Amino acid sequence: MDDEFDSYPYDSFDDDGGAAFGFPSLSSQALVNTQQSWRASLAPSEGFASEESLQCADRRQLSIERATLPLLQLADWKEDEAYDDEPPRCIHYSIEFKVMYNNKIFLKDTEPDLVLAPGAYWLKFLQPKLERLVKTKLRRAKDLVQIDDTTITVSVRDRSARDLVKYFSGFDIDWRLIEKQLRTWAPLFREGKPLRLAIAFTYVDTDRPGDASTGATTRGRLSATQTMLARRTTQLHAEATTGQQTTWNELYERMRCPGPPCHLGPYCWRDSANSKHYRLRTHHFRSLIRHIEEGHPINCHDDVPDFLRTQLYAEEQQDTERKQKRKRDTSPRNIPSIQITNVLPGQSNKHASEEHPVACSSPITICGSRDRAVKRYCEWQCTKVDDIVLKFEFRKARDLTLAEGFDLEQLHEDQDYQFLLDKGVKLGIARRFVRDVKSWASLSNDE
Predict the structure, then answer these.
(1) Which helix (H) or strand (E) holds 164?
(2) Pairing of strands 93-101, 195-205
(3) CB of 95 within 8 A of CB of 199?
(4) Are 97 and 109 within 8 A, CB to CB?
(5) Between residues 282 and 207, which one has the greater pLDDT?
């Protein structure tokens, strides 16, 4: 046994250390070589670890990209499709809306599990539904109320995400902001956290004749002008208490009707281009105050910013259209007239045919995707006008056309723009949108 142990090349315990305990004695050079070999052996492992980290980062990036879901627009949405895939292939959300009138909630409703983008859903479904409900619920006062403002809260059931709250005057809603927030939260929705829009529509009374001494209406409520004056008094009192400059007071003084006195109330904007007066309401003054706070002084009527002028023009047009529609709705139904044309022998019926021209036009052919052609046609129409309101009306006509499933060939063939008028498109825009299809088609085909 001793010979067996002696045969191993082990030394006794010496200054090199470790030999007495059964470890081989290595010289200093051998130790260095061993250390270098050990590092060289780790180099591939270190490279592999770095490559694995990159692969993990790529997988995380791919996961983020897959988590980004689209919001379906009208051109991509199919009404008869369920969209109940697992995992989902588009963003789902719900709308909870309420209608406020005289500071009370008189109507609440929910639209669950929606996939159509909010802007398109508002145009196609929610706005017509809201108008029907308001007309039904406020049947006795339908001619005496109007929309004042809209507040939208976008939320997701996640503690780390703060709600987005946006205020809009009337129905002037920027749906792009709302849809952008929903797309931002698409990864949270994929994780099973629901998205929700809470919308509050506030309606107010319009001016009614009342007792001049009390300012109250025949029903005992303050008119809109009296309400504005009450808010002004409250604002002035608050500013006087805090010692701030009475910005509201100065603005009210500068926006008084410059004369001759008009029937719109004590405050209005006078357009120097045509000397027409436009009534200023509370939400208009709020916009002007924000404009002043941003560093833009308003010293006279000519200093009213362009964005508010455009808003006043649009509201005036909408009011005119609503009055015309109410007048048509309240007028008695006319009995259809019967036209009798006597044609003597030998005479042609040319005159009768001239009085009733055929609406159908010769067919045209438009190559490519039909819904994309509607969008291109709309953009061409927008290049023909500079006014932002008119551009908006053309885009509204585009969305309604797609919502009803029409294409340009059908519009040209039917020459019927009544469905656009029924949805509130201006008469001139509706006529242009239907009539100019052939002109655009010839230009497009030549290209």
Answers:
(1) strand 164-169
(2) parallel
(3) yes
(4) yes
(5) 282
